[in-house]
Request: fold
Amino acid sequence: MEPALRGILEKVIDDELSDDKLASNFRIFTQFKNNGLIDSVPSAMFGRIYTRAYNAWLEYKASDDKPLNRHEATEFSRIFETRSMEIRSKITEISNY
Reply:
């Protein structure tokens, strides 16, 4: 994976894990849960972060005119898997307030 793309993915995840963003998303997803729209606030928050990173990857690939390939998809998965415990920890932390 190109270093620029890796940097973009890491930045998207970092942005989503900022205290302000986590608190805002926690409030929004808590409202969704209270309205019966979702079952789990932490799962919804985790899914949002994954989706934001995945969309950033797709947007980058759409602009570089190179086709998606399995190697990059595998590397994307590894990046997210590497950060998943940190993501889970931050979500758990905000959920316990």
The radius of gyration is 15 Å. Residues 3-95 form one domain. Residues 70-95 form the longest helix (26 residues).
